[in-house]
Fold this protein.
Amino acid sequence: MSTLKDPGLASLGHDKMNWVRRKMPVLNALRDRYVKEQPFKGQRIAISLHLEAKTAVLAELLHIGGASVSITSSNPLSTQDDVAAALATTGVEVHAFRGANDEEFDQFHQHVLDIEPTLLIDDGGELTERLHSSRKDLARNVLGGAEETTTGVTRLRALAGEHRLLYPMIAVNDADMKHLFDNQYGTGQSTWDGIMRTTNLLIAGTTVVVAGYGWCGRGVADRARGLGARVIVTEVNPVRANEALMDGHQVMTMDQAAPYGDFFVTVTGNRDVIRPEHFVKMKDGAVLANAGHFDVEVDVKGLRAMATEVIPGRNENVEGFVLPTKQTLWLLAQGRLVNLAAGDGHPVEIMDLTFGLQALSLEYLLNHPLEPGVYPVDPAVDRWVAEIRLKALGIEIDTLTPDQEQYMASW
Amino acid sequence: MSTLKDPGLASLGHDKMNWVRRKMPVLNALRDRYVKEQPFKGQRIAISLHLEAKTAVLAELLHIGGASVSITSSNPLSTQDDVAAALATTGVEVHAFRGANDEEFDQFHQHVLDIEPTLLIDDGGELTERLHSSRKDLARNVLGGAEETTTGVTRLRALAGEHRLLYPMIAVNDADMKHLFDNQYGTGQSTWDGIMRTTNLLIAGTTVVVAGYGWCGRGVADRARGLGARVIVTEVNPVRANEALMDGHQVMTMDQAAPYGDFFVTVTGNRDVIRPEHFVKMKDGAVLANAGHFDVEVDVKGLRAMATEVIPGRNENVEGFVLPTKQTLWLLAQGRLVNLAAGDGHPVEIMDLTFGLQALSLEYLLNHPLEPGVYPVDPAVDRWVAEIRLKALGIEIDTLTPDQEQYMASW
Amino acid sequence: MSTLKDPGLASLGHDKMNWVRRKMPVLNALRDRYVKEQPFKGQRIAISLHLEAKTAVLAELLHIGGASVSITSSNPLSTQDDVAAALATTGVEVHAFRGANDEEFDQFHQHVLDIEPTLLIDDGGELTERLHSSRKDLARNVLGGAEETTTGVTRLRALAGEHRLLYPMIAVNDADMKHLFDNQYGTGQSTWDGIMRTTNLLIAGTTVVVAGYGWCGRGVADRARGLGARVIVTEVNPVRANEALMDGHQVMTMDQAAPYGDFFVTVTGNRDVIRPEHFVKMKDGAVLANAGHFDVEVDVKGLRAMATEVIPGRNENVEGFVLPTKQTLWLLAQGRLVNLAAGDGHPVEIMDLTFGLQALSLEYLLNHPLEPGVYPVDPAVDRWVAEIRLKALGIEIDTLTPDQEQYMASW
Amino acid sequence: MSTLKDPGLASLGHDKMNWVRRKMPVLNALRDRYVKEQPFKGQRIAISLHLEAKTAVLAELLHIGGASVSITSSNPLSTQDDVAAALATTGVEVHAFRGANDEEFDQFHQHVLDIEPTLLIDDGGELTERLHSSRKDLARNVLGGAEETTTGVTRLRALAGEHRLLYPMIAVNDADMKHLFDNQYGTGQSTWDGIMRTTNLLIAGTTVVVAGYGWCGRGVADRARGLGARVIVTEVNPVRANEALMDGHQVMTMDQAAPYGDFFVTVTGNRDVIRPEHFVKMKDGAVLANAGHFDVEVDVKGLRAMATEVIPGRNENVEGFVLPTKQTLWLLAQGRLVNLAAGDGHPVEIMDLTFGLQALSLEYLLNHPLEPGVYPVDPAVDRWVAEIRLKALGIEIDTLTPDQEQYMASW
């Protein structure tokens, strides 16, 4: 029933799933409860997320909780075929393989929607887009869903703003236990993991230019410094520029920074942040990487157009562009998310938090019927995830004494 | 007309004012405009703030902008008499001296209100309290005011919640350019400046226990690490506890942390955060300091009550308490704000941002008549302060291209 | 003439060599000179080093400088077959393939010695050992050589101490531009690169136990902190223990540290640093990695013996050992150097420094005939490498004025 | 018998001595033994050191150990008169007051030598200079001494080089437990303590130029970064320049750095490191401080000569120099050691290490009669101090197992 590259890869996939399962205390705590309570009994859940081991454990968890689950990948390059094969053996329906073309990619999503979902987990709005166009008939079954990314949430808000959103969606991305951790510490580590393994270059003593000082940018900048680099931040927001400065980084325009960078990392959420006018000012050998959602932050088209020659790098994730001005710039992972396309994505423990919020948000929708609209994660859910993580780590924190509670309330 | 300790100290006070004026680009930019525009012409401004050089420059600025200004100190111990004397020579009315008793402290505030203010700058609600009780008749003149502290804002919100607030107040504390900088970087530096100059003790290699991981707590913890300490954070909020952990600190309860700390710094906004049950578990020689608003975070009364002996420290800002359990604990600045009571408060450049927000918020009130209530700082004001600071530092940032603006709006 | 796995892999190997060549300014500066001067004309150079792209560029350089060069790998697992194939096309003789057995490994070294070397580059003493036993007849041709590692230098000193060393050897390992950089920044980065890519685990918020606080240990500890971990150091030297403490780390015995560590990294140069008595005290899920020279720092045999079960990890570089005490410990890369066995070794720019010292030390031997013995690198060579690197980075430094020179000499 | 400013200040001085005594575990451990063993019985010890509380505790200790002790200050500005008065009540002879003129300063040293010393503790060679000129007759009594500073050691080596040194001197400065700690962590913290308390300026977000990257320079640079600054290092040594770079700092010439610095700190041991040609390129408001031994690192004479006006700063430790190029530069503490002249010198715990080495080195001289010459501290002494400090902190470290000892010796 599943669509897979090779069911024979399941054994490798199980190894990967076993590995991550051991480092996901939040999902494990939920599993213990779901086995007994079966909260999703009778529900049909459609999922579109990057399909690798951590995601597989989430899908399996919802199935264990009583749901019928059908899943595909939100990006044709992020599917790990061995994991997909392993997941398919657990009772979850899987439609995905790495390197699907556009038509196959769409077809997978259609198959997943064939389950006639009552609940959704979406990444960038792939499922919701189809439920509001070609599969509109299915929307009436949907009790609600949860969205993973900033991009998806922004899209949902636009839809809701035009009163066209057909069911309630919870903005998991905006929860404290998501963006403070996933965006900051997750992106920070996985970006540099990806860059180091791809290039074998030294970070200490180099100059790293980070475009954007939101939560992701802070994480990338902080880890760059932790690896011994000097950091230059570019921003369009003057408050954030001041923060970057106070954190000990230099702040300048991309135009000014271009000649100094050994590494450039874009994390802005915008397009064409590094453009031909900047490329020509860069040092020979500068490395360009993107850790923002889409592959438009570095103007790859512009770079390709102006290059007099394209030369191979150390491996398939590095490409050299020789400019008319003679220097060679090295683009990583074709300007796509360097941590996913040239690495393994966020660390396991980070996704445990994010996926805990996902599962609990679906449960919340079952227990709290909502009008169509975009909703924040219930603060109690955020807090519960935070508490479970502390507990798993054996960490205790203080509680307010009655006197202290009264003092705080007495103003 | 002013009430001063000694007008003869003015010369020293002018030296201090000259010094800080050179490092306040935001106030300087305002001065250039105020000289010409006289925005406060005809206004009468009452101020209650810690009266030292930075505050004096703010008061002078408003006077230069056309206002009649009368000022006192929001804390009887934070007045610097030389600065008060200098300020009184500039045309500002001053009522303050260091070490005023309770009656004098109240009388100073009454004198300041005698100006029949149209605008207020308040710290902790000292002026507003009186304008809502003994001086209620004067409230009708008040166009509005601005409040400096978290504590004051919380009080104002309570008053407004009971529909008793008689004029609009702007919560300067909540502006980005205030709490992100003043609370974090200001408190972080000045707390350790105060501790080091008071104790001459080594920070590197010690264990610092920071109670509270809000913006102030982060600043204190980050600087402690920057000075070579290992940091333990205590919290009551599990999300913040997770953040502290991810930032590389240890997290535990105060009860668990008590035996490890060489220095304890409280920044919670709550009371009795360190109590007798903790004192008895501490190491001989542990140092206790508070950097939160009030002197109740360390239970000083409890400490004093249980001590078998009180011994002198290195200077008047260190006191040793010998416990029945034999160890001696050293309390700094009697548990008051260690950065103000045993130091010079926040660095100049930080107060430039905060006071820029103050002046602009008063201007805003003149141009935008508001109903009674508590209002956020206008985002344009926040942004303007951020921009002026960057400009003063010679820092340029990027601006969105039309294509980028469209891209950001296109979801 | 070369012994290779597959000459057809040369193209991939050339890509790798091209990549690293661009980031090796010291070797590039030497190449420019060697092409003209041919300093090694008539020399025959035997090399035993980890055979990957950076090493290949060194071998090629010496060949370009006029020498006949024959090379093998100092470790049967560190050969990259594509690089070996590429190097063989440049005129260098290569005898190596990945996964050679003990007999093949020895045979490769014998082949390399068949060149009847006049100069040597050795790693751990593999060539020198054979030149002092089975190939003693060839030693009389040897003008001298250079040794790469601490281990090799220690062995050479023992040999020289017994007056048995037959030619002069230069201790490249001990040069400032080697151990300060290779050992500290090289090991620091490559160890964490290896651990992150192998495990996909989060470093931030974890506790890392670093055994040993020499130059390597400092690097590993500093980068761990830079990635957000709390660090515990174990040492046998009380001075170093004090340094670790002052650097903000905790210091304790391995016995005390065992229950706290999420990651353990050994960098001591000693054996059995982590033993069964420690294993049983560790947390379930703890990760064990070694970044010291040999695979004896973690007592792998002891671990294997006590395990009730061995389970697969996420990939072939992670193995799980289930203990009678129920917890599972994860061993990376079988306890071998995690940065080489599960990564790409040191960053390119680091090896540029080390290999620059190697080439220049061989040149030095040609120009300065020496008695048998162990010699430090000429300080002028150290300084020259430092200067070339600064120049390549476009960095200028100050020079003493005549007055300053006189002042420094005047005591 | 003592020469004091005011014996009535003794009470304040005792408070200070009590304070530091509690944080000096090494000296306390020695005191316990000295009380019983009286190792210095019959000895006469002359001391010239900065005379403040930490030094007083050392002098008292030697007296407790059986010696007659006479002490003066090695710098006329570093005497604390209250401490001098307190010390004089303990049986130690004191000749010092703050602000002594040149003649008085010399006279104090002559008085101290009148004790006819058998042992010396010297700082910068003040006693030795006189014992080799006007008081040559007393040299024959001297069993030996210990020297505190790099400067003094260099002088002694020059004297010994000319075969003119008349007794053995131990170079305490060169011990691991001295320069790794005192120079690095001591200077690092106390320099910024001094700068912050003197200026009340913000460090975060500024650019700090550190001249010199020896142990002192590293400490100053590292703490600057820990306080949120960006650091530029200037050096004359290319190896150190590379180290500074790898540590994440920028490296350039003073000429290039001049326009960027908000703070300049000299720690080179040389003269005229910042000169008129640099002053004219600096930003308006730049702050100049010295943390090297002598007040010649900043060319204060040159600065004074070129200034068109000298203006008062915030207090007596800040002086403004208006240049013909219009900017004002602020010089701290007249270019003298900013941590001593505008602060309290090194933290207590640091001096405990240094003074422990001093006392033990004198003991060593008693038990190991030596020829005239300059000697390193006995490694066993270094190790003992390291161990005592760990023990005082309750820290245990590992010891080698017999197998490990054998393994280390087996090459």
Q: What stands out?
A: Chain D is about 45% helix and 15% strand. Chain D has a mean pLDDT of 95.
